[in-house]
Automatic annotation (TrEMBL):
Protein name according to UniProt: Lysophospholipid acyltransferase family protein
MF terms in GO: acyltransferase activity
SMART domains (alphabetical): PlsC (SM00563)
Sorted UniProt keywords: Acyltransferase, Membrane, Transferase, Transmembrane, Transmembrane helix
Amino acid sequence: MSTWRALTLMFRVPRRGRGFWFSLAIDLIWPLMALAARLRFAGKLPRDGGLLLASNHLSNADPVTVTAFTLAAGRVPRYLAKASLWNVPVVKQVLKGGGHIPVLRNTVAARSAYTGAVDAVTRGECVMFFPEAGFSDDESHWPSARVKNGVARVALETGAPVVPVVNWGTHELLPAGSRFPRLFPRRTVRIVAGEPVDLSDLDGFDRETLDEATKRIMHAITELLAELRGEQPPVR
């Protein structure tokens, strides 16, 4: 995608349901991202109905690039984010206005994030998960073996499709731990969506079922990333 095409695309993506502050953040950040990186998108998302996206996680830039991809595919993403961000000036307006879901980590109230995600999907919205709940701890940037079952639980509760999404290149644009992006040389960021993960034969919420559903989702993410990178993932 050329820089000019990326810049003009922002005027054709969905605006309804973004909220004023989330929409303003998109309008301010999108041109900067289009200038900072070459964006390459592939794959489609269902245009209607409740939807779950599950992505690998490499960089703090991932929510920005995934948002651009999701909007370009015709959907407005809702994120789960740590509740402390709702106390940060400006950021809290973006998160609240965008309909994002606070997560009270390591507390009994953490379940409210699950309920919020289920409610959003039931309303027909698109909810984004990073199942690793943090950056990959693999030095070669393959998906971590450390994952959470949240997206699997919401999928089994709602019956909504889970679409694997992979990022590649954001770790070079904004490496983990860096406060500022690396602008030179200009990086290429690729994002691809795959086919929905088949969970139709799974029923219930016991640990074994949730682990199996999560395993399938992470396998789909890893295989999609391997195809994008043209490499074989490590055997876990």
